[in-house]
Amino acid sequence: MKIILKLFLLAFLFLNVQSCNTTEPPIDDTQPGRRDYVWTVDTLDGLNSPRFRMWGSSPSDMWTITHSAWEVSISKFDGSEWASYGVPGLINPFSIYGFSNNNIFTGAENGKIWKFDGNGWNQFAELTKDGHSDIVFDNMWGESTDNFFAIGAYPDSAGLGNNRVIANYKNHNWSMFNTDRLKGIVEHLYKNKTDGKIYLQVIKFSNTYDTTFIYEYNQGKYTKLYTSVWDKYWANISLINNEVCFVLRTEIARRVNNKFQTVLKLDNTNFYQRIWGRNSKDIFLNMTDGLAHYNGSDIEYLFYFNITPRTQIYGAALFNNDAFFLVYEAQTGLSLVCHGILK
Fold it and tell me: Quick check: pTM over 0.85?
């Protein structure tokens, strides 16, 4: 299992997008997103234990996970401080997603999915595909507790995490999508409210270079929309205001009438792979030297990293007045949470 953990870590080092459900009133998306945040920084327990996934039901019920050290594998924020702990039997959580403070799911090693019910964590499912139990669920997303996805892969014959897995929990039952046409780890999957289609990002590993693919899934059919070999830039998808946004290397686009429509070009910037947002005029940009913000007309930095290079933002959770970002300083081994509150 140690080999596959190292392989799946590569996917985290390239990409991560994690948005957050909230029951707060909607934000007026006709106005530019505000930038007058007051920032605080918390250091999470565990040295060299980066956090790649984050979810929360509210600014006082935040969760993040790491698979690097069991004793700090689960971290929770109660509105005032973070506390980290391990759960007996819950080994190497890779993903976390929820729908309320008592309906939270995490995907762990060996095809296991655990659920937090408000009182504690319990195993919810143990899944296999094609006779394989060595599945890592790299990410999760869904519309409700009775319709959500756990996605990832298991190792191919070369030991690379390229045998794609899409598991769907619906009507109280699990089913596996037919993914024979795909090759790689399924890294992100979202349903687009505008056209009702599912879009997914798949990363194919090799011993020479890695490639990312963006697919459309509709009525059992996968259509490849975009391919990008990893160098400085990458391709990615994010869900912003229930609309899938596409990162096509240095361009942010949306899908209109089965074509990509450019929202923003990011040439000649320090942009690096990841975006999060509340709406099209309130988008946060991961940069090589900090966090920047696009308000529909221009881009400004919100904060800069204390140490560069190799410091990255891996995940985020956004609410009306609060924004949480997972920052990892590879040089120091510190896992940080930057919390911004609008004045």
Answer: yes
Which residues have CB under 8 Å from 131's CB, separation 6+?
A: none
| Domain total in the chain | 1
- The amino acid occupying position 301 is Y
The span from the CA of 209 to the CA of 67, in Å, is: 25
Confidence of residue 230 (pLDDT cuts 50, 70, 90): confident
d(Cα 137, Cα 165) in Å, to the nearest integer? 8
What are all long-range contacts of 73-76, with beta carbons under 8 Å and residues at least 24 apart?
74/106, 74/121, 75/44, 75/45, 75/51
CATH number for the domain that contains residue 261: 2.130.10.10
Structural domain range at position 203: 2-342
Side chain identity, residue 129? K
Q: How far apart are CA 129 and CA 161, in angstroms?
A: 14
Report pLDDT digits (tens) over 234-288: 899 999 999 999 999 999 999 999 999 999 999 889 999 999 999 999 999 999 9
Q: What letters, b where the CB count within 10 A reaches 16 and e where it falls short, cover 316-328?
A: bbbbeebbbbbbb
Secondary structure (3-state) at 10 = helix
